[in-house]
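Second attempt. The first submission of glycine dehydrogenase (aminomethyl-transferring) had a stray character pasted in from the spreadsheet, which I only caught after the job came back as garbage. Lesson logged: always re-copy from the clean sequence file. Corrected sequence (530 aa) follows.
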Amino acid sequence: MTMNTQGRPTAPGEPETSFRPKTFTGNRGLDMEEPLIFEIGRTDTTGVDLDEPAEFAPELGAHARSAPIGLPGLAEPEAMRHYVRLSRNNYAIDSGLYPLGSCTMKHNPRLNEKMARLPGFGDIHPLQPLSTVRGAVELLAELGDWLMELTGTAAIALSPKAGAHGELCGMMAIKAAHTAAGRDPKIVLVPDSAHGTNPATAALLGYRVVAVDARDDGTVDVAAVRAAIAAHAGDVAAIMLTNPNTCGLFERDIVAIAEAIHATDAYFYCDGANFNAIVGKARPGDLGIDAMHINLHKTFSTPHGGGGPGSGPVVLSQRLAPFSPLPFVRKTADGPVLVETEAGLEPGERPFGRMTAFHGQMGMFVRALAYMLSHGADGLKQASEDAVLNANYVRVGLQDLMSLPFGERPCMHEVLFDDTFLKDTGVTTLDFAKAMIDEGYHPMTMYFPLVVHGAMLIEPTESESRAALDLFVATLRDLVMSAKRGETERFTGAPYLAPRRRLDETRAARAPVLTWTPPAPAEVSPQAVE
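This time the job returned cleanly.
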């Protein structure tokens, strides 16, 4: 028996024709077109049987609904298909390399997910009696011990829900410490390369932000810090500095900066967004910091997509330890206890209040500790080394074609390029990013940090293999050479192959359409009926 050679060719390759049919469904083969749920569901039906509620007295007053809620109903298979099809349009770390700089979109091990779903962790409620959640409290204590050991600090607040929330927590502890000492400084120093949340957090607490210029090499000059302190003598509350910084560089003068700050009774807040580069290699507390948030969703592999769920524990120095917010874990001879109210405080404990209703993101705590225990101290150190190695591998693979604003010096866990290499090509930084989508990659962080024109910040993380990095580097090299050859059409209309084409981003930001309006019924002409 011989194979049928008369059928349609199944081998991969270019199609024999450029014909692209316009399909009736809007689908393109297995690339399924998926309308909004309001377009396919009916408001008068649902796939779930709901009993009529018993008589009750509403307590919402003027806030009660006055009209039907209008949610569309779908049969269970339809609902499942809808969300599965939507998920296929979402780029994720499980589908490809995610090169976002300063975001550490690393692999989330499935072991962590299994641990977070254990009944003793996944099914507990924050209002349960503490006597019924001893194991969960012990986990909080162990996670806190790991984080304090890795950072060289004396206390920890686990409750903040994300990085910016953690920044607020650390700066509130600093403000409480100044108040307790009878001081009321008004100035916070922030390097001009900082994350935008740093000055926003300081301003939210009533501080005036004074920018500190970076040196030509992208790092903060201790002389500039001393000059700012002298210019505002006695009025500096703190400095907020990221290390490694947002340019992907280690602040080599961090110890001298800390000493200058502490000499004026001010405090050193370190933005921990880039802790992923130095875990197991350097302890921020040993370098002089007083407070630092730790993004568990960046450094310790808890999920990061879709805006969270984040978790931003804050470690505190001995000077700030008394001001850690409620709730916090206290070690006792009988094991750890969770101190939830001021009634449980001991002498010397002066929390500034509380950041959130309960203890924080329990599921993220479980995932982070599972990651730490599975790696061990040596594994966490290697993860940092591999993150730095991978970023430098990308840097070396592209530095002959793409431009490095601070020279061909080694970087930390992320490498920063600017758009100088696109000069006179007719291709913009945004065009370049959109063309990456056609190649199957989420673009790197664009236009940030602001201190570099046309910034392209790439962080491959330690999760990626050499083969994955080689393909990524080769793809970017091909795009760069295409731009230099004048093939602008490849860029100016990109993305061509995504489910949706390029948006008018300015118009979308200034005039967003936030509600869906049903289209008017189509009119059928008498001629069409005949």
